[in-house]
Design brief:
- By secondary structure, the chain is of the alpha+beta class.
- Helix 3 crosses helix 5.
- The protein is rod-shaped.
């Protein structure tokens, strides 16, 4: 019975040893990992994701993460090209693309990448002025990524992206920037104020110019209308005087001595109504002239001559213009005066004087 117990124990021990040895050789590789198998100091090969078994105690498997990894570059003080101390830090995104190089070419690719990023960041920022660092972050990010990706390619690591996290100038530089910003704002305010005053003066001058143009144009039109009205009035007055003279010349022919006597008495009445204090009546001279005329051959008209005189009718009055004709003439004058529009006032070179109006504005063509 004791012998059976010993055999059972031995079997159980052997089974446990076999299970332990088997379990020691079991390796599970995750989908985002890549395994590297080394046996007795020699590289055997890669191990793909899944369940794998290796010879225990003589084989070793190293797993590398193939996902994108985020690493922070510690903040460091950098002197820019214009000697402005600035604290800068960054974030680097990397991914292992060659597990063999990442494991065999460098002891720790993460530490090596961070150290390289620090030195590269210091060199890139040192070649730029502070203003360029503040306003050209995208260019800095691109330049850092290209340099780091080229250097880490031998390690089997790809730098996917680099981002400047913070640019923090020292306190003295911040105060100087604040003063510079205030001065720049004051300069812009002065420029805007001067520009506003300039535009205001221009608008005032333009308004005054347009006002003077309107006033001159109105005065010109007023003078044209006034001159045309005076011309028409003179024409009508002269026409009336001419018609009166025609009537007088025709009507004076049949006057006899009695009528002349009546007219003389009427003239004496008119002279008596004047303001003169002394009036001389030259009747003797008139009689002398009459006697002289008879001596020269003048004679009194006979009854037959008086009867043969022409009879006066309405034809001696001539053509008297009616109200409609006068209104038509005035309307023609108003239409002939050029009208000024708002666009012509803005650009006086566009205004044109009609060809049928005299430049003096007094006598339209065809009127005498």
């Amino acid at each position: 019975m004791a012998f059976i117990d010993i055999n059972t124990i031995i079997v159980i021990f052997l089974v446990l040893v076999i299970v332990t040895i088997f379990a020691k050789g079991v390796v599970i590789v995750q989908p985002y990992e890549q395994g590297l198998q080394i046996r007795l100091g020699q590289y055997v090969g890669r191990m793909n994701p899944g369940f794998r078994w290796i010879v225990p105690f003589v084989s070793d498997v190293t797993k590398l993460d193939l996902r994108t990894q985020v690493m922070e570059v510690p903040k460091q003080e950098v002197i820019t090209k214009d000697n402005s101390p600035t604290n800068v830090d960054a974030i680097v995104y990397i991914r292992v693309i060659d597990p063999e190089k990442a494991f065999f070419e460098v002891a720790n690719y993460r530490i090596a990448t961070i150290a390289l990023a620090q030195t590269t960041l210091r060199g890139v920022i040192g070649d730029m002025e502070l203003d360029e660092v503040l306003y050209n972050r995208e260019r800095i990010n691109t330049k850092l990524r290209d340099i780091l990706d080229h250097e880490t390619d031998q390690w089997g690591v790809k730098v996917e992206r680099v981002e400047i996290k913070e640019v923090d100038p020292v306190e003295a530089v911040k105060n100087a920037m604040t003063e510079q910003t205030a001065a720049e704002r004051a300069r812009r305010a002065a420029i805007l104020r001067a520009d506003g005053e300039k535009r205001s003066a221009i608008l005032k001058a333009e308004g005054l110019r347009q006002s003077m143009i309107l006033e001159a144009e109105g005065e010109r039109q007023s003078k044209v209308l006034r001159a045309e009205g005076e011309r028409l009035s003179q024409i009508l007055q002269m026409q009336g005087q001419a018609q009166g003279l025609r009537i007088l010349s025709v009507g004076a022919a049949p006057l006899d001595r009695k009528a002349i006597t009546v007219l003389s008495l009427d003239a004496l009445k008119t002279m008596a109504n004047g303001q003169a204090t002394k009036i001389i009546f030259p009747f003797e001279i008139s009689e002398l002239i009459r006697q002289g005329a008879k001596f020269l051959g003048a004679k009194d008209e006979t009854t037959e001559e008086i009867a043969g005189r022409p009879v006066m009718d309405d034809s001696i009055l001539g053509v008297i213009p009616k109200q409609e004709a006068v209104d038509a003439i005035l309307k023609e004058i108003q239409d002939a005066v050029p009208k000024v529009t708002e666009d012509e006032l803005k650009d006086t070179s566009k205004r044109k004087v009609p060809a049928d109006v005299d430049t003096a504005g007094l006598n339209p063509p065809g009127s005498q």
